[in-house]
What does this fold into?
Amino acid sequence: MSFYDSTVPAYLQILGSLSGLLSKAEAYCEAKKIAPEVLLGARLYPDMLPLSKQIQLACDFAAKGCARLSHSEVPSTPDTETSFAELRQRLAKTVDYLKTFTPAQFEGADSRDVTFPAAAGATMTLKGQEFVNRVSFPNFYFHAAIAHGILRHHGVEIGKRDFLGVA
Amino acid sequence: MSFYDSTVPAYLQILGSLSGLLSKAEAYCEAKKIAPEVLLGARLYPDMLPLSKQIQLACDFAAKGCARLSHSEVPSTPDTETSFAELRQRLAKTVDYLKTFTPAQFEGADSRDVTFPAAAGATMTLKGQEFVNRVSFPNFYFHAAIAHGILRHHGVEIGKRDFLGVA
It folds into this structure.
């Protein structure tokens, strides 16, 4: 196996499960006559980001992470989604983008420098594997799990198996 | 770099940051005169697990994950912690345990079979890398991020940088 095997499939697993979470959230809104924007704008605390932004950030950390690791052009995707369907499209496009990467592009990337934006306009450089361990995975899984937590907190009937993508 | 580099340091990063989150939570309880057990028992929804169990599960997914990957004896740790200090000790012991593993023990483990308990008393077998991508990391990060979400939701002044361990 390879560095590719330890990154791209891991992102894909959770991007797929997030799409399923959104479908259950949408069905919940329909069943309970909740306006979708209520759930899309729901937060765990007033100064935390809402559900829609958690999904957008999970997409970004996956897409930009793979781009940085492979020294490809880093994609910029405006956050324009305002519905469950549009967020699922964003996830699907991210999945399609990740699937364009090949194991060859990740060959040696674990020990190659990755430079990325840090706080206050500065940049930071880490080796690829450290970038994954300390930046990309923790951020990616954080936003995905917080999206799940927002939905659970608002009563959507999902469980950890939905997050794992085995439900 | 190696399969060891893509697993053990990733767990250690977040185990360390969880300890910091608990210290801030404890200080918050003291400042606000909140009984620690209120926060330790806090949940995002009545049928979700409380903070203390989220920490215990994060420890277990890290420790058991490394044991399974290296075909070591899987440790069993009773969930007896009832204070912030005891949970930090649990985290510290998990860190110490993870530090006993060597890269040699993980050599080839990415493509070796890992058998682990699945739903309803069954077992499941995956190659080591798939086990990490589909089971161990998603579960580990999930419980860690939900612990963070519980604390944020209850007003503890932490941010994502605390979760990443860069605060």
